User: What shape does this take?
Amino acid sequence: MSSAHAATFQPVIGIVGGIGSGKSAVARAFGALGCEVADSDGLARRVLSEPDVIARITAIAGDNVVATDGSIDRAALARAIFASIDIRRAVEGVMHPRIEALRRVQFDAAPASTAAFVIDAPLLLEVGLDRECDAIVFVDAPESVRLERVRRTRGWNPEELSRREAAQLPLEEKRRRATDVVVNDGAPEQLADRVAEVLAAIRVRGPRRW
Assistant: This one.
């Protein structure tokens, strides 16, 4: 692809990686470079505030996922989802179409100058969103760094991290299915440059051919 074409090409980029790898930090770096970033966790919070969704989730997972103020207790819902694959699939069936609809609205409203459209979704590969992407960026971080991050931000121990990751695709499978890698090893001053290099390479490479 010529440099002129690269200047107009707006790729769709998916972000994957292990829990605690810093996918959100990479997404923010893409955003600072003029990309439109869809944060699936943020969109999920919006969906979970809808009364009909609250009613459907409660019917699926039980009253124990409802907080005292009537909202969904996300921590309780996460425990229910990880405890039962049937509950997880039913909840995903409610949530994912609504999240996808909000994402499309967001992307459609993005300015013409948008450098790329970035999907930051925890289960991007698991739910097949990679089919919509021109590139999949794997965020690589040492296990020791990931453990420290989840300990500090979520209060998890190594056993809890392992349990949560067991419900996702293995890291090596995520890496294998990625088109690009960004190393996020705890050096924030280098992360922006690494993301910029990957974005430039993706735009030059052009649309993904399936």
The radius of gyration is 18 Å. The chain has ten helices and five strands.
